[in-house]
Amino acid sequence: MAKYNLIGRQKEIEELERLYSSNKSEFLAIYGRRRVGKSYLIDEVYGEKMAFSAVGVYFKKEERSDLRCRQEQLAHFYESLLQYGMSVETPMPNSWREAFRLLRQLLENCGKRRKVVFLDELPWLAGPQSSELIAELGFFWNSWACKQRNIILVVCGSATSWMLDNVIREYGGLYSRLTMKMQLHPFTLGECEQYYKDRDFHFSRYEIALAYMALGGIPYYMDLLRNDRTLAENIDQIFFKNPQIKQEFEDVYVGLFSSSEKYVDIVVELGKHKYGMTRKEISDAVHTTSGGGLSTMLDNLQQSGIITTYPRLGGKRKVMVYQLVDFFSLFYLNYMHKHKTPTTGWGALQRSPQFFAWAGLTFEILVSQHIRQLQNALRIGTVTGMYNWRGMTDDGDGSQIDLVIEWHGERTDYLCEIKFSENVFAINADYKQALLDKISAFRESAQHIKSHSILLVMVTTMGVKRNVHSGCVNLEVTLDSLFD
Asked: Which fold has domain 190-362?
């Protein structure tokens, strides 16, 4: 494999190289959260092989008239054609049909070599009335590009819902034309560690986890950190001393969705409920009907990796819950939304109750986003079920289990208690009793298959201290295992 200036992304690199080495034309759609590194990946792997590249330009809502947007996007497309060698005497196209005809002429003059055509931020390029560009893109591919055997057409977009609706699931000219779709995810903890080492940071794994809980595994945000500052100084500089950070929060949603205000309202409400909300609770909070419009927005947020949905069991019926899991948004809403910016620095905040409430929640989310690593640490095979459980103890108190993993192959239910701690976590008599009460409540619940055994798992940052109360824990998983 060729050497690229990339951390991780090995699977994606292999797929991109395979496409380039094939003996036919290929059509790739790549999508994912804003700032996750989609354009950088394509530029790094295909940069020298580009025969043409154009990028859509974002227009604010008040500037987004159909005619102006279309004219500006065509003008930028025309400038890209000139940049890649089209004659300056060629007049600017006044329609997407004409633009793709000029692109075909440009590519025909490039000889028989394999040619990469990269259309970046396709949702912005298409504009408010996207049907024209999509139709002409489909015609360009179906009538010519797919027959050349040497074209790699790559379309990219941060607006995940738009990419899914207009390209990946489109039932017109692009129906079943994609040869590959690629969703780019944030870095894992292990990839973040590699990223920091490559840039001469000497963070501990605890600090890498804290950075992940604030920034997520988003390369753009990670690149803002400087190795001549402590992690606390970096967080101060990025979040608390940067007036542009509020705009970045809004841009995440503007870049993903056309009616971003409605999406932000949903995200803000979810940010107030750490264990998530039901559809009805969201509908009531944002004053909208629990119908198709809300379903579409929730689906779009989920497809973009901003929220997740999971079953909450333990009550009279299974309830589907929507939870905010975008780390950057969680940090922003917890510390900065509506002028909550703290006057003390991040270092001082790490001793506050607010910090431990935030860290406890985000560590649970971090674990849930590293399920493969957790399964490997527990030596679990194919998982049958995974859910959050709420029930009642014998004395009538509410009881919650952070994560239940069912492994029918071994007839075992793993009850995972997830705890964030700066140091080794010590179990005292009261906490031990609370754990035993949870096990008892779950054992008597409808979710527990009576023939299954139960194993109590403590998932912690630094491990569990051995004492007279720790024997109730059957298995331990520490932060280190999540880096594997």
From this structure: Arc Repressor Mutant, subunit A (1.10.10)
Provide the token pair at 163: 């990419």
Backbone angles phi, psi at 399, to 5 degrees: -135, 140
Write down the pTM of the prediction: 0.91
Give me the torsion for CA of 427, 433, 434, 439, rounded to 10°. Answer: 110
| Spatial separation of the C-alpha atoms in residues 365 and 295, rounded to whole Å | 23
Q: What is the average pLDDT across 127-133?
A: 85
Give the span between the Cα atoms of 286 and 479, in whole angstroms: 37
Q: What is the largest CA-CA distance in the chain?
A: 84
Say if residue 162's pLDDT is above 90: no
Among the CATH numbers 1.10.3470, 3.10.450, 3.90.930, 3.40.1350, which is that of 370-483?
A: 3.40.1350
Q: Are 182 and 26 in contact (CB under 8 A)?
A: no
CB atoms under 10 Å from CB of 27, counted, come to 22
For residue 198, the SS3 value is helix
CB atoms within 10 A of CB 60: 7
> Are 474 and 436 a contacting pair, CB within 8 Å?
no
Average pLDDT over residues 29-38: 92
Contact 397, 434 (CB under 8 A): no
Distances (CA, A) of 440 to 41, 48, 323, 391: 50, 62, 27, 10
Strands 307-313 and 385-392: parallel
DSSP string spanning 372-394?
A: HHHHHHHT--S-SEEEEEEEE-T
List Cα–Cα distances, 331 to 87, 195, 285, in angstroms: 50, 21, 21
Is it the case that residue 17 has pLDDT exceeding 50?
yes
What's the CATH code, domain 10-183?
3.40.50.300
Parts of the chain belonging to CATH 3.40.1350: 370-483
Q: Is pLDDT at 338 greater than 70 in this prediction?
A: no
pLDDT digits (tens, 9 = 90+) for 48-80: 999 999 999 887 666 566 678 889 999 999 999
- Between CA 84 and CA 90 the distance in angstroms is 13
- Measured distance CA(284)–CA(75) in Å, rounded: 45
- Delimiting residues of CATH 1.10.10.10 domain(s) in the chain: 190-362
Residues 286 and 262: beta-carbon distance below 8 Å: yes
pLDDT digits 0-9 by tens, 368-420: 999 999 999 999 988 888 888 887 655 656 788 999 999 888 899 999 999 99
Could you tell me which residues are beta bridge partners of residue 308? Answer: 323
> Which one-letter DSSP state was computed for residue 277?
B
CB count within 10 Å of CB 206 equals 15
